[in-house]
Prior knowledge:
Layout: E1 7-13, H1 20-25, E2 33-38, H2 45-50, E3 57-61, H3 68-81, E4 86-89, H4 101-110, E5 120-124, H5 136-153, E6 166-169, H6 170-173, H7 187-198, E7 202-206, H8 220-240
Parallel strand pairs: 1-2, 1-4, 2-3, 5-7
Antiparallel strand pairs: 4-6, 5-6
Amino acid sequence: MYGGRRLAVVVPAYNEDLLIGRALDQVPRYVDQIHVVDDASTDRTAARVAGRGEARIHLHRHSTNRGAGAAIVTGYRAALAEGAELVAVMAGDAQMDPRDLPALLDALLEGAEAAAGAGYAKGNRFAWRGPESFPAARFLGGAACSWLTRWVCATPPLFDSQSGYTAITRAALQRLDLASLWPRFGYPNDLISALTVAGVPIRDVPVRPVYGAERSGITCKVVLLDLPRVLRRCARRRRTGRTGGAVECTSAS
Length: 253
């Protein structure tokens, strides 16, 4: 538990045979549940998770690859079903430093009374002032995506929209149409849009940029095809005030 709240961590994973063990080792002991969602990996990711034999780890498997966003939604649903009150996301590639998790959770707990228990906190690697470095190409791409998201979604001044290190309250999750969220690249932008329309307060929290042996499946083609589609959805959601919407994504990320 954290701050007297039941805490779950969702771990989306796709072909993370080499890193999933390290990612799970990094999840703090105060986390009550760990929901690993294997998005139809073709390697030994699921076997490595199943072989750990840890009671708090729950393995969920997609029969087909549906995207990181869809994996996170599967984890959110499982966490809600198990009674979690706070839910964080720590990816299976060990990119999320566990030392930053308390800051994300505290951002929710500090505003819980004023926001009636609702809130979403997201990592902001741009704001980190430590020695860890942010690769220049990723910095420029992330900055461009953040600017477009703020402009299209009319969000507060948020940065690093593509950060996957997040935490959300149960109340905030229950205000979303989870089934309608974009499942692949662009999921963070779509989620920010849905939260903004739903009136859920969002907080930026400085977190360490961590890069190492992980592999990125995001290509220029994916960005150029998927991001404009997601931003059009966000603009439509802003106009209509509806948090849901059909998901028509077919491309892979």
